[in-house]
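Can't paste images in this forum, so I'm doing it all in text. The chain is below; anyone willing to post the predicted structure tokens underneath?
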Amino acid sequence: MKKIEAIIRRTKFDEVKEALLAADIEWFSYYEVRGVGKMREARIYRGVAYDTSSIERVLLNIVVRDKNVEKTVQAVMKAARTGDIGDGRIFVIPVEDSIRIRTGERGDIALYNAEQEK
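Text version of the structure:
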């Protein structure tokens, strides 16, 4: 199992969500976060200067079986990419175990129902 953490632009969240659902990734958590990137310049909008050193992003947490890692990463990359600086990052982290609280099932089966297995 792997945990995929993706930091993406807020404006791309709906596209990424739809791409994940299309890739049969039906469960994930997301959080609105702020971060600091390489861009440190002030931007001016309607005569008001805005500090862009702290940027708003969405952090996705997705835990998948090993066989679903690549399709999950590709779905996020395709949907989140604009080609501009600040598109975000994806991290793939090993997960030692997963436990379904309701039933006590452990491992891969705790992520998905066996009767839904294709």
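The chain is about 20% helix and 35% strand. The beta strands are 2-9, 29-36, 42-45, 48-51, 54-64, 88-94.
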